[in-house]
Input
Amino acid sequence: MSWIEDRLGQRKRLKEHRQIIAEGAESLFESLWQEIVGNVKEAAEKGLQVGTNGAGYERIVWESMTPRPGQRSANRKEVKITLRKEREAVSISETTPLSEPYDFQITVDDNGVVSLAFNGAKWSIQKAAQFILDRFLFPDVQIHEPKL
Output
């Protein structure tokens, strides 16, 4: 087999890979969002001042912050969860000054199943949602990634 045939085969596999991700990314993102919404509802029931909004491929979780002395109204912080199909990723960015944006990669396993990965390891939807919200809602007690 020549190198040209190798490259043609690689091109075909890459095109198939991208097609699988294109078809599965939206439903994966929606599953992640539904898990996040369920957790946010529980947090609100437990007394946190949190909520969600956004639509399409960009969603937001917000938390109201207690006003400082002399402030008229409460501030709020946000975490933005964005599906970036062109990058095969779900991007996470917070409005807090000390947080760095990060991505969950959208991957395809050998069986053609689309899933999330972080730092090269496959993550469940539940683990990813918990990780996102734990870093956002509880940065003061954030010690390590959740064990699920």
The CA atoms of residues 7 and 115 lie 26 Å apart. The radius of gyration is 19 Å.
